[in-house]
Every structure is written in structure tokens, then in C-alpha cells.
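Structure ticket #2291
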Amino acid sequence: MSIDQRVVPSPYVEFDRAAWARLRLTHPLSLTHDDLERLRGVGERLDLHEVEQVYLPLSRLLSFYVEGSDHLRLITSGFLGERPERTPFVIGIAGSVAVGKSTTARILRELMARWPQTPHVELVTTDGFLYPNAVLERQGILHRKGFPESYDQRALLRFVAAVKAGVGEVTAPVYSHLTYDIVPDERIVVRQPDVLIVEGLNVLQPPRVRADGRSGLAVSDFFDFSVYVDARLEHIREWYVERFLRLRKTAFTDPDSYFHRYAQLSDDDARATAERIWRTINEPNLRANVATTRGRATLVLTKGADHAVRLVRLRKL
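Resolution: structure written out below.
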């Protein structure tokens, strides 16, 4: 049998939801219904039962990874004869628009901050590293917002590298979903967290190949652990449309909203508009740039049609 005919073993071990939930053991759930309401995204069908069965075991696993990372750092520092210095444990969270990656990031931040060894957990989204709309318009790529080329990749790389290096204060731009743009002269400050969570569409992208054939650095090179939130394309498309219809009656009604023009659309026109945006922007980006990075994740959460996680795949060490 030739090598091409052999089945390549999967680098992942798979757990159905029940098997994964048992890994929580007896660790108590400290989140409340009020916490969940604050953390849940628009239209997200997430309850405390799912947090208990899916995200609590994941936060427990991550606490072990943090401890292991600290231990390895001590060993390495001793070997090199250096003074050991703790640096942040960095987690990347990727996935499509509307798949629920932002809620996953917020839930994990809340859970991990309640573990004694990681009380200081920061969450940064890559939206802040999008180029301002004026720049995207000048380059003729405003319609490709969310594609890799619409981000200031160098600035994002410098930010994550500085945090990972233990720099005392590192700042990042602020993005407004209301105005759909970077907020001028406003920055968030990250001060030596125990854990940094970086959430975004393209955070698992591999390094770019330079003109001379060499590869540069990628943001994912600084991750200690990564999560990809996955689902079937048709389910994500419907979730995106449902979210658009909800926002049309809520956030889009604000006169300052970039999308205020959609607030007065009829149900049929709103659905047609959402499906067009999905078909021409979000789906091509998902197929070409986002879904292709799924195999680079340490852990994959796969959701069913009801938005609930059904399968967990963990990369083997």
C-alpha cells in the first residue's frame, strides 16, 4: 500500500459532550444566571448547563496548561542559569462571524479569572487592529473588512509579542461596533496579565511567506493554547441572518449606528440583505481564510444546529 492510500491518523482525540462533561469532576460552577446574561452574545442560546458541561472542563484543562507552562519555564530558566520570570499564558480563539467565539472568549475569561493561579485575565479582540475605515476606503477594500488584508497585522503582532515578553504596559486600539470603526485617540491598556485571551477571525493564520521565500512570524506563534469554534456552514449562515434581524430592531435603531439605514427594512428585505452580506463577504472569508485554520487549533468546539457544543476535539500532545 502506498503512503497516499494509507489513512493518516488524526492528531486529535474526540469527546462527545457527555464524555467531555465528566472531565469537570467535582469542580463547582461559580457563574450565575446574571453573569451569563452579561456575557452571552446577541441571540446566543447558551445556558448554565452548557457552561457547566463544556466550558468548566475547558477552564480546568487550561488551568493545568498554565501550571505546566510555569513549571517548564522554571526548568528552562534553571537550565540556562537565568532568573525565572513569569510571562502571560496566551490563548487564541478563532472561528467564523456569528459562530459564538466572542461569547466563548468572555466565558473563558470569567471562569479562568476565578482560578487562584490566574486571577488577572485580559481579553483583547482583533477588531481593534482593523485599519480605520478611511484607510480601507483609500485602499479600496472596505468591502473586504474582516479579511486578513484589512488588519494591521504588524501592529497586532507587536502587541501580542510585547505582552508575551512581559512588558509592563501595552496598549491596543479600541473598535466601536456602533460606528463600525476604530475610535480615534482611545486605547485599552494591558498590564502584565496572568492570561491573555486574543479573539478574532484570523488569529490562527500561518505566517506569511515573504518575497524572498522566508516565513515571518504569525500571531499564533505566541499562543500557548488555541480554540477554534466550529459549526456547519449552513448553521452559521442562519445564525448570522438571525442576529442581523435582531440587531435591526435593537442596535441598528441608534441614529449613530453605521447600520442605521437597515433599521427600517421590512423583514423580507432585511433577510435578503443579511443573506447577501453573508454570501458576498462572510462566507468567502470563512471558506478561504478562517475555516482553513481549524486544523491549527489545540482544541476544536463543534456546535450543532441548536448552537450547543456537541463534540470536543483536543490535540494530542
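Closing remark: The chain has a mean pLDDT of 93.
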